[in-house]
Amino acid sequence: MSSNVHTIAQTGFGTGTNDLYDRARPSYQIVALDALFDALRNKENLNVVEIGAGTGIFTRALLAHPKWSSSIRTIKAIEPSSGMREVFTRTVTPLNTAIDITITEGTFQDTHVESGWADVVLIAQAYHWCPDYEAASKEFARVLKKDGMVGYIWNLEDRDGAPWVARLRDTIEVHEKGTPQFRHMYWRATFSTPTYTSLFDPPSENVYTYTLTGTKESVVDRACSKSYIAVLEENEKKGVIQKIKDMLEEEGREGRVKWIDEERGVFEYPYKCWVVVAQKK
């Protein structure tokens, strides 16, 4: 993996972690995908660059979305992790023969995409790992056509949606150890860099609240798919898992979980989705 990738990301998303990530992480809501599509200035024969494409969760959401799937000509997916690229190749490339889809190694600062090729750069659940916002903005501006767009999107468990989600996040986030997680909003510094302010319009942002179905197992898996949990020593990781299970048992017993099917252990899992759009001038 590139030396431009954070060491925790290299290990936490390295080979052997990727099938869990692909199984555990949620997909993207139609309303959020609609918002990204509606913001496009050009909506036909789209050349898409997806940076930090991971295992293909977002790409598969694009291919399942009627507006996006009927408008895309080519997707050039960029991903620094070889393990994630392997899962992407296995899960995405068999899905659609009408769209030309490739995945190659690269980073926010170096996509290897030709200049002026892309109608849109899309980044799902990844940009908070960017180590150099100025260099990334230069790269986005270089690969985009005039009037092109950058779309950033993140899903995050909604600590305001239920007390147990706040307890869950408190349990796992103590292990972040300074990693540049989305919730810290460090990535907002992008929009005051010299390249961004000179070549892009001020960003627009929307936040969507939604609810997924959860089980004890899916909550544990999602927690373990976090890079900073994946890198824990095995006994420490087991301790975190047990804390999550004990917390969910207590919250369910005390009636603080909103059950969908209590007998089957299925409950509401509150989430939020952030969509940020940057238009090239």
TrEMBL record:
GO molecular function: S-adenosylmethionine-dependent methyltransferase activity
InterPro entries: Diverse_substrate_MTase (IPR051052), Methyltransf_11 (IPR013216), SAM-dependent_MTases_sf (IPR029063)
Keyword Methyltransferase in annotation: yes
Top-rank taxon: Eukaryota
Keywords attached to this entry: Methyltransferase, Transferase
GO biological process annotation, one example: methylation
A UniProt-annotated Pfam family: Methyltransf_11
Residue ranges of domain Methyltransferase type in the record: 49-149
Family per record: Belongs to the methyltransferase superfamily.
Protein name according to UniProt: Methyltransferase type 11 domain-containing protein
Organism name: Panaeolus cyanescens
